[in-house]
Design goal:
698 residues, mainly beta, Immunoglobulin-like, elongated, peptidase activity
Length: 698
């Protein structure tokens, strides 16, 4: 049984180790020195490797950045000796390493065994384990979960018998456990020292399991992270000469709301939630289980780890010769980094002897080669060793040296070239023909800035043309302008570059918003109007709404109705358009006729009525007003020589027309004149009487 990660220091664990995500082909060897170096893995990852890497630009002062310490658990043998990627690159003057992190959906590991003999001196047991240990991370309902996955080969070095098992441990928090409700696979959940764990033993009927290994044996491991019916799944595979065999595919059945799937994580910045375990990828040798240790009596093993970078499997760029996430150990082991001079493949060579634990190579010791091609898939031959790739690119980790490269599109040779790589170098090569892809805009005012972004790269201009130089592929573009009054009609889409230049016309137009006027109160079929200016008019509207397409701004509108006894309220007002659609309701109110009729005036005489503050005049006997329901005060003007019967009053309008016909003008008598005439007449009579009396006296 394999002693697992959770109870490493308590020596209490059952069958819990494994070997996970592996595959790496290697061939003849030459020792290669391993000097400390600046980590170029980060700049490589930022060049489109397909691996998520949060440290693509390393800090200038590395001492300000914390990293894990790989010596926390093991500093000397016995230890889990082999090959490990801790997410730690270049060593610094402060005795630390430059951290980095990445995640991947697949790891490959290989152990090529030329010779292997171990023994536990206390028991005489000649069994051991080869463990591929990885860390799976995902978020379910925004809660983070961490699981330690082990893909393990148990080997009896005396009989050369081999058996494969896997373990999964819950590292989400201190004391976290596994339950039958957690995971479902070909194995089962068991309990050890109050800690639940999952394990599965490969069936003895599977090809390559429970067999006797040949004298020269290669054991390959592959571990994939996938999704099955919306839940995370791990595929555990091996290949020891009988083809790839998937012997377990456990599904985390509780996780039905996965909000983030990081898959397998390597992180040199942080420890796992228990505070001391590592987010690493390690392929190690150790005792057969339960925290046991063994001694290397004689060995010659080549170990390699590769990860899926989004285009191809690539060897890790930094390696230590020991792991930390297991308690099974081995001693009397020497592990050094070497490479094949024929093709630059890097591996760790494990032999018996007095060894030490250290970083055996970093990205300063190796070279990174990135090749961009015009093919969605293909292969590249490096001095005769073939690597397959997808999505137009291939990224390789190689030892420094000169290499003859042959690039193939299927079986057709596309290009031959030779490169000379130096230690610590990142060499990008683009062998794909490129074409001018131009975008020409129309509709923007001269000098207006605009931009086009293609696959994350943005080009800006104040002229009407933007040009990209691109290889054959399908690209996603977006177009925008900081002048938010304008918007491209086709502001995003895909373009296909296929062996020729490409031109696209981008038409900008002013961004408009729907401004809807809604009428209320009119009977069906009524015709009404809305005018915003002398040129922006609705025309006749027969429905209950009308919409304008307007840019941001402030507008004054006026509404009216044709030949209907209704009046809009309000008949005019203002609206402000500010980055969104809007609507306004115009209420039409029924109007009633208030008729004033006079009698007594001669034809053609002008008279006036003031009603509700509005004065109307007429030279006939009728004055008309149009009013809503309500009570209104009126006054009637006087006319010289005429008396008015009712010169003021109130009018009640209540759902019908009203006639006010009590306006009567009558002649006005001039009693002063009459009095004067009487006085004059009286005086005349008196005078006449006096004259007569005088004459009679004579």
């Amino acid at each position: 049984m394999v002693h697992g990660k959770k109870s490493k220091w308590k020596k209490i664990l059952p069958i819990a180790i494994a070997l996970l995500f592996v595959l790496m082909a290697v061939s003849s060897i030459t020792t290669h020195s391993t000097d400390m170096l600046s980590s170029s893995v980060n700049s490589h990852a930022s060049k489109g490797s397909g691996v998520t890497n949060s440290s693509s630009v390393l800090p200038s002062n590395e001492s300000n950045y914390s990293s894990v310490n790989p010596e926390n658990l093991y500093r000397n043998e016995p230890a889990p000796v082999g090959m490990a990627d801790y997410g730690l690159g270049t060593g610094t003057l402060f005795g630390r390493y430059t951290p980095y992190e990445y995640n991947t959906t697949s790891f490959l590991g290989s152990a090529k065994i030329y010779n292997l003999s171990v023994v536990d001196n206390s028991t005489g047991n000649k069994c051991m384990s080869v463990q591929f240990n990885l860390n799976l991370v995902f978020n379910n309902s925004n809660n983070k979960y961490v699981y330690w996955v082990q893909d393990v080969a148990f080997i009896n070095t005396s009989s050369r018998a081999i058996t494969f098992i896997d373990n999964i441990w819950n590292m989400t928090s201190s004391g976290a456990s596994m339950y039958n409700s957690t995971v479902n696979g070909t194995g089962t959940v068991s309990n050890y020292s109050d800690s639940g764990y999952y394990y599965s033993i490969a069936s003895c009927t599977l090809p390559g399991n429970d067999i006797k290994l040949p004298n020269l044996a290669t054991i390959n491991f592959m571990v994939n992270s996938t999704m099955k019916n919306g839940s995370p799944e791990v595929e555990l595979m091996y290949n020891d000469g009988y083809g790839w065999v998937t012997y377990d595919s456990p599904v985390f059945i509780f996780a039905t709301n996965v909000t983030s799937d990081q898959s397998f994580v390597v992180d040199g910045y942080n420890y796992e939630p228990d505070g001391y375990s590592f987010y690493d990828a390690e392929l190690i040798l150790g005792g057969p289980g339960d925290g046991s240790s063994t001694v290397d009596m004689s060995s010659n093993i080549q170990l390699g780890i590769e990860y899926w970078n989004g285009h191809n499997y690539q060897e890790i760029t930094n390696a230590f010769n020991y792991g930390s996430d297991t308690a099974e150990t081995i001693s009397n082991v020497t592990s050094t980094a070497e490479y094949y001079t024929s093709n630059g493949t890097i591996f760790e060579n494990v032999t018996a002897g007095d060894g030490s634990l250290s970083q055996v190579y970093s990205s300063a010791d190796i070279s990174l080669l990135n090749i961009s091609t015009p093919f969605s898939s293909g292969s590249i031959s490096v001095n005769g060793t073939e690597y397959s790739f997808v999505k137009h690119e291939v990224n390789l980790t190689l030892a420094p040296g000169e290499y003859n490269l042959s690039i193939y599109n299927g079986t057709i040779l596309y290009k031959n070239l030779t490169v000379n790589l130096t230690a610590g170098e990142y060499l990008p090569l683009n062998v794909a023909p490129k074409y001018n892809i131009s975008f020409t805009e129309t509709g923007l005012p001269a000098g207006t800035a605009w931009s086009v972004t293609i696959n994350g790269k943005t080009e800006s201009s104040v002229t009407n043309t933007i040009v990209f130089v691109l290889a054959n592929d399908t690209y996603t573009y977006t177009v925008e302008t900081p002048d938010k009054i304008y918007k491209a009609e086709h502001y995003s889409g895909d373009i296909v570059v296929n062996g020729s230049s490409y031109k696209s016309i981008i038409k900008f137009s002013k961004v408009t918003y729907e401004v809807k006027f809604i009428e209320a109160g009119l009977p069906g079929g009524s015709v009404w109007y809305v005018n915003l200016s002398s040129t922006v008019k609705s025309g006749p509207i027969t429905g209950n709404s009308f919409s304008f397409a307007l840019i941001n701004g402030t507008y004054t509108y006026r509404t009216s109705i044709a030949n209907e006894p209704y009046e809009p309220v309000p008949s005019s007002s203002g609206i402000s358009v500010h980055g969104g659609n809007m609507s306004t309701t115009i209420t039409f109110s029924r109007m009633y006729t208030v008729k004033f009729v006079e009698t007594g005036l001669p034809a053609g005489t002008t008279w006036l009525v003031t009603l509700n503050g509005t004065t109307e005049s007429s030279d006939n006997n009728t004055i008309l007003f149009a009013l809503h329901n309500g009570t209104y005060a009126y006054t009637v003007s006087g006319v010289n020589g005429k008396k008015i019967s009712d010169s003021s009053g109130n009018v009640d309008v209540n759902g019908k027309n009203v006639t006010v016909n009590n306006i009567k003008y009558t002649p006005e008598h001039n009693y002063t004149l009459y009095y004067g005439i009487g006085v004059v007449a009286a005086i005349a009579i008196i005078i006449s009487a006096a004259i007569v009396a005088i004459r009679r006296k004579k």
